[in-house]
Amino acid sequence: EAQVTQNPRYLITVTGKKLTVTCSQNMNHEYMSWYRQDPGLGLRQIYYSMNVEVTDKGDVPEGYKVSRKEKRNFPLILESPSPNQTSLYFCASSPGLARYTDTQYFGPGTRLTVL
Amino acid sequence: KQEVTQIPAALSVPEGENLVLNCSFTDSAIYNLQWFRQDPGKGLTSLLLIQSSQREQTSGRLNASLDKSSGRSTLYIAASQPGDSATYLCAVFSTNAGKSTFGDGTTLTVKP
């Protein structure tokens, strides 16, 4: 089944404790992206990747890191989480901007709480 | 900076009614525009994608239009059903990068 998976789905952590949220897609998509969704602020893009080893900042990259060492995986790293990073996080992928069909496929979301 | 606005923020209609959701964007240099559906506590599901060169796309009871020059898109839902109740989001992809900008969404309630 074609899908985007995220782990963990739920996470409660404390300020300053490094964490990684994994994202994996099995559709051989070139493009992957991370978003956070907050009440009243909508969905905002954190980082995106056009292909392996190519990443770029979205609108709210502060406090986050990403890597794209292989096509299927795009982990989101919080080196020193803070309470303002409490949010619902979504990973998404699409075939790539060079292709006609660029529908984005979203993962199920990771609900992160930083105490 | 691209800004995407969706009006109305919430909409309640009786079952069977046809309805229109609106999306406007400030920068017309877009690659494509997508409409998504989000159910409470769930991820996003793509409904329709319109390339910048297209004027509209249809899928079943859904029809999306795009007027790039005026920075507007509409999502038309025909013969609404209670199962259509959800939040509908529009998103635009900019041409010069992989950046995407989402609207805040319209929360639709269809009453039986």
- Strand fraction band of chain B? over 45%
- The chain-level mean pLDDT of chain A equals 93
Q: Determine the oligomeric state from the structure.
A: heterodimer
* Largest sheet properties of chain B: 6 strands, mixed
Number of helices of chain B: 0
Q: Fraction of residues of chain B in helices?
A: under 10%
Uncertain runs of chain B with pLDDT below 50, 5 residues or more?
none
Give me the Rg of chain B, rounded: 13 Å
Largest chain interface and its two residue counts? A-B, 27 and 24 residues
Shape of chain B: globular
Uncertain segments of chain A of ≥5 residues (pLDDT<50)?
A: none
The helix content of chain A, as a percent range, equals: under 10%
Cα-atom radius of gyration of chain A: 13 Å
Termini gap of chain B: 41 Å
* Main sheet: strands, sense, barrel of chain A: 7 strands, mixed
Query: What pattern of helices and strands is seen along the backbone of chain A?
Result: EEEEEEEEEEE
Structural class of the secondary elements of chain B?
A: mainly beta
What letter string, H or E per element, gives the SSE order of chain B?
EEEEEEEEEEE
Can you lay out the helices and strands and say which pair or pack?
The complex is a heterodimer of chains A (115) and B (112).
Chain A: E1 4-7, E2 10-13, E3 19-25, E4 31-38, E5 42-51, E6 54-57, E7 65-66, E8 76-78, E9 87-94, E10 105-106, E11 110-114
Parallel strand pairs in A: 2-11
Antiparallel strand pairs in A: 1-3, 3-8, 4-5, 4-9, 5-6, 7-8, 9-10, 9-11
Chain B: E1 4-7, E2 10-14, E3 19-25, E4 30-38, E5 44-51, E6 56-59, E7 62-67, E8 72-77, E9 86-94, E10 100-102, E11 106-111
Parallel strand pairs in B: 2-11
Antiparallel strand pairs in B: 1-3, 3-8, 4-5, 4-9, 6-7, 7-8, 9-10, 9-11
